[in-house]
Amino acid sequence: MGCYDCCMKCLGGVPYCSLVATLLCFSGIALFCGCGHQALTEMERLIERYFARNLQDYSTLAYLIQYFQYVIYFLASFFFLYCIVLLAEGFYTTSATKQTFGEFRSTLCGRCLSSTFILITYLLVVVWLLVFAFSALPVYFFYNMDTTCHTITVLTEKNPASINQLCIDARQYGLLPWNALPGKACGMTLSTVCTTREFRLTYDLYIATFAGAGITLLALIHCCLQLAVRQVALKEERRQEKDQRKSYELYGRLQKDIGGTLRSPYAPHIISDSLPPDCPPPLPILHGNP
């Protein structure tokens, strides 16, 4: 076997769909976990500095932020292992099974493994839809802050007295309890908050986190569809294999009933190529019983 044939054989065994899904999942999870972790840290600093005066007012928020950061550590580890196993399963069903069992064969272990991955991936898609929706909430909060600050900038030149009525209340978004003071930022104070490094960095990080959640959701949907298509293909291969076996059994019964070998309208080498290895090729002449 030449170098070209060896390279083509190796490339033919690569599960490109699983590889694309794995790369998408890796990039989405890396973006979601990395940016989300840093965004939570910057948000804690922003709330502590501009929206709360007492430590007790944002202690619950600080506890929740620490809890979500531990969840991010778990998600990063889980999806890293899951993507590796998914890619290995793709290589197994694409390359090893074809080389060991033939082009149209599948093992019981492989079928059970594919069904298990379909179920797990479907559950992950449902859970990640909730994560995707949840990651949009801080983006909505900071978008409202940015829009309000832009309105304050415009009104400062036209009607400066009305800018104090424009506020962002962190208590309305559930970030602080209702007895927290001051709990909100209004007028020029809010405009000053929007020009700080913490606000811009946190806003950009939450946008990147939301994008990472969307990429991960796309990768999970791609995995689920790819596994479902592969399962359908395996069922079709098993059906074709059963049809071939039935035709071979019918051919054998006809041989026994006639007492000889059937003459085929096709060439002998075509019939012999289509028969399994343990079935002898048909003879071109029909020999009956004397």
TrEMBL record:
The chain crosses the membrane at residues 16-40, 70-92, 113-137, 205-229. GO terms for biological process: axon development; central nervous system myelination. The keyword Membrane applies. It comes from the Eukaryota. Signal peptide: none annotated. It is a multi-pass membrane protein. GO terms for molecular function: structural constituent of myelin sheath. Its main location: membrane. Keywords: Membrane, Transmembrane, Transmembrane helix. One of its GO terms (cellular component) is plasma membrane. It is found in: Membrane. The keyword Cell wall biogenesis/degradation does not apply. Belongs to the myelin proteolipid protein family. This is Proteolipid protein 1a. It comes from Oncorhynchus mykiss (Rainbow trout).
